[in-house]
Amino acid sequence: MSATNALAAWRILKGSSFGRWLFARVICLQAPYFATIRPRIDRLEPGGCEARMRKRRAVLNHVGSVHAIALCNLAELAAGLATDVSIPLTHRWIPKGMTVEYLKKATAGVRAIATYPAVEAGVEPLDVIVPVEISQEGGEVVFRARVTMRVSPRRVGSPGE
Question: pTM of the prediction?
Fold first, then answer.
């Protein structure tokens, strides 16, 4: 799904709980690993994304809190969607790296907020750092990530064109 398609689909489906669920399912069909956290998207627009996941057995660790890698998956998903709808259609992106801070055990459902910075993509590849903050129900920040996205011009004939 290209940025135009993702944003267009979001604008159509965001108005209902079923539509938001369906949008997340389509994203998970394209990137199947994200299905492991059963994400829900609450906001998607150029410049940012909000996504959440419930606390459920499949995402817990041995001490009953949300697993660190589940938090990383949610952060990467939110950063990826924020990037996808923020860059020009002439460009593509791929995650290059991620640094994370585990601030506190997540003992409830969590919400990620990714903010794509105001940068202009040019003809040269660019590394863009997308900050993501994850809070648990109640608003307490439990995790922070900085996802480095490599943004570069699409080559003629590349997938997604």
Answer: 0.91
At a CB cut-off of 8 Å and minimum separation 6, what does 147 contact? Answer: 75, 76, 79, 80, 95, 97, 98, 114, 129, 130, 131, 132
Q: Which two tokens stand for residue 76?
A: 């990467």
Quick one: which of 56, 87, 86, 53 has its CA closest to 72?
Answer: 53
Q: List pLDDT tens digits, range 117-161.
A: 988 888 889 999 999 999 999 999 999 999 999 999 988 665 555
Residue 159 is assigned to a structural domain of this protein? no
Residue 125 lies in a domain: yes
Which domain does 97 fall in, by range? 3-153
Among 110, 129, 115, CA closest to 51: 110
**Amino acid at the residue 110:** V
The total number of structural domains that make up the chain = 1
CATH at residue 144:
3.10.129.10
